[in-house]
Structure formats: structure tokens, C-alpha cells
Predict the 3D structure of the following.
Amino acid sequence: MDLVLRKFLLDVDDMLPARIVSYDRTRNRAQIEILYRVTMTDGSMNPLTAPAEVPALVMGGGGMCLTFPLKPGDLGWIKASDRDMSLFLQSYEAEPGNTARLHCFEDGVFVPDVMKDFVVSDGAAATLQTMDGTTSVAVKPGSIVLTAGSTVVSITDAGVQSNKPIQAPQFTDGTLKLIGHDHSNPEGGNVGPAKNP
């Protein structure tokens, strides 16, 4: 009985590790390599055939989304759908299955997953960051910290702090513009434009 069940499950796709071969970000379609080898009866190992292309997971909602510039070699997972999704992927509306396919990677989605070789920039925060952690947006209760190399800008309820000078074309306080504003001396004359401390 176990042998019959195993043979049945061998024809059912669910989820396996995969790697990006190429990615069209505009169309959101990825060509992938499935990182699994099938052992044949003679002991040889063959690669598992990947679908021609699949969509990549793009998290989003409320008129916003989070996308990544996936590159060849990026790791992730191929996750199979329960039914044939080919017509749905043409219309993005409720559609019947175009074939009788069940649990097949042809109807899958690529889920990006870094998996390894990354440095967490802030272990107490949710981060959007580069793999080496040198550029990041770290968010935790009451705090957002922006890091780009040695530059760090921290935003809290108390204010904004930067460890480097901040350059801007203009600063405005209400109707008063700092750039081009001259201070008048109450004793007469003009002390000139605002200066850095």
C-alpha cells in the first residue's frame, strides 16, 4: 500500500527549491531551474524538468507592491497550484481549468528566498536591506533608521537625527524660507543671510 501511495505522489508536484535563470520584471515572468535531481532505476540522476516560465511572487495590496530585481542565480521555491491556472494568468479573473492538470509546476509560482549568506543589519527590526546589510531601512516600534554605508538617519517621535550634514535646496518654516532670507538687525542694518553654525 505504501508503495502504491508513493508512486502516486511521485506524479504530484508541490514545492521544491529553484533558481532564477532569467527574469522579465516588466511581465513578471521567470525562467527557473528546479534544484532537484531524480534518481533513475539505473542509479543515474537527471534534473527535474522546469516549466517554460512562471510568475514570481510580488507581495502587495492597497495600491502598493514590493518588487525585487531578480537576477540569474537568485534562489527561491517553485510552488505548484492545485489546478491548471493558465487561463487565469491570461485574464486574472475566475476561469475554469484549461486542462485536467493537478498539482503541476506548470501552474506554479516562484517564491524568492535569499536562504543564505546575508547579514542582518538590525536584529530587533524588520529590515529591507542589501545582502551585506550596509544599506537598509530598519523599522521597529517608534523608530525608522535609514543606513547607506556610513550615513545613518534616524527618525523617531523626538525628531530626525543624521550623523552627516543634510543638504537641501530650500528649508521652509511656515511661510519663512531659510534660503534667501536676510536677518535684520534691530539696531539698524542687515546681518545678512542665515549661516551654518
In short: The mean pLDDT is 86. The helical segments are 2-9, 88-91. The radius of gyration is 27 Å. The longest strand covers residues 102-112.
